[in-house]
Write a structure and sequence with these properties.
- With 303 residues, the protein is mainly alpha-helical.
- The protein has one domain.
- The protein is built from seven helices and two strands.
- Strand 1 and strand 2 form a beta hairpin.
- The N terminus is likely disordered.
């Protein structure tokens, strides 16, 4: 007897399962959606970072090259993984669907089904991109091969201009991602509330009051609204410096360990390499969660 496959019309259609308990149509749409949106977002991030670093030192161009390599690798990998969707996934299709579905379910539990269906493309791309940029920076040779000078006192060669440099160890890159999130947050907030509703959420008094107390509360909430504006403007700054600081600190620790003692320079960085692999995952997750819960969730609470 032939197996019947029910194709859902929406991602959340509970009927979209096969006899294997597997929903292939929603995954296919989601994978393709993430692939196309990843291409658009990664190109936007690279463009913004390039504009920020246009007058910077050549080392910044080397970090931009790393981000382009990682972005191209992610897009090609996703394209290969979703080229021929099978009902029973295997190999790289299985890995890609596991990654995308895990992120989708994780975010759905945090910001809700309605918001995740609207913003998942951004958060999934940000997490995957930051994760692999962080890990790419740990490849031996990234940041350690390039042009430099010999220290006459120690005889150690110091790299002044690396051939390749970790993407998120460049403040221009993290600033670009934070700036794009800030613009998207404004768009999502205005779409959900309108311009008047957005301003009302910032400055209008909350609660039911009358008389002189109502006037007093209006003045207080108007002043508090300006504090909220300042905090909103500082969000992309804190996001960019948090990611940059953690990744740059990891790079500095690895460099210090590798130059501390010439006789064991190959051994000392190894424990810190494993730590930085974990830090790469944690920082990608933290950036995604701070933008999701601290930014987009504000839109949901305001509506």
């Amino acid at each position: 007897m032939a197996r019947q496959v029910v194709v859902p019309t929406r991602w959340d259609d509970p009927a979209g399962i096969t006899d294997f308990g597997y929903s292939c149509a929603p995954k296919k749409m989601r994978n393709r959606f993430v692939l196309l949106s990843s291409l658009a977002l990664l190109c936007s991030v690279a463009f913004v970072a390039s504009a920020i670093a246009a007058e910077a030192e050549p080392a910044h161009a080397n970090s931009m090259l790393v981000t382009w390599i990682v972005a191209a690798g992610i897009i090609v990998f996703a394209q290969i993984a979703t080229r021929n969707i099978k009902p029973l996934p295997s190999g790289i299709q299985n890995f890609w669907e596991w990654l995308v579905e895990s992120l989708y379910n994780f975010l759905e539990n945090i910001i809700g089904r309605e918001l995740v269906s609207k913003t998942f493309w951004f958060f999934a791309t940000i997490f995957i991109f930051i994760l692999f940029v962080n890990w790419f920076g740990l490849i031996p040779g990234v940041g350690t091969i390039g042009w430099g000078h010999h220290d006459p006192s120690t005889g150690v060669f110091h790299v002044d201009r690396p051939l390749l440099r970790g993407g998120n160890a460049d403040l221009n890159m993290t600033t670009a991602m934070a700036a794009i999130f800030f613009v998207l947050w404004l768009i999502w907030a205005i779409q959900a509330q309108g311009v008047a509703g957005f301003l009302k959420h910032l400055f209008a008094p909350k609660g039911e009051t009358t008389g002189i107390l109502k006037v007093l509360m209006a003045v207080i909430f108007f002043m508090v609204g300006w504090l909220e504006v300042v905090s909103i403007l500082f969000r992309p700054i804190s996001l960019s410096f948090r990611l940059f600081g953690n990744i740059y600190a990891g790079e500095s620790i690895l460099e210090a360990m590798s130059t501390m003692n010439p006789y064991v320079s190959w051994l000392l960085p190894i424990p810190f390499y494993f730590m930085e692999i974990l830090v790469g995952v944690v920082q990608a997750l933290v950036f995604m969660l701070l933008t999701a819960d601290g930014g987009v969730h504000d839109v949901d609470r305001a509506t």
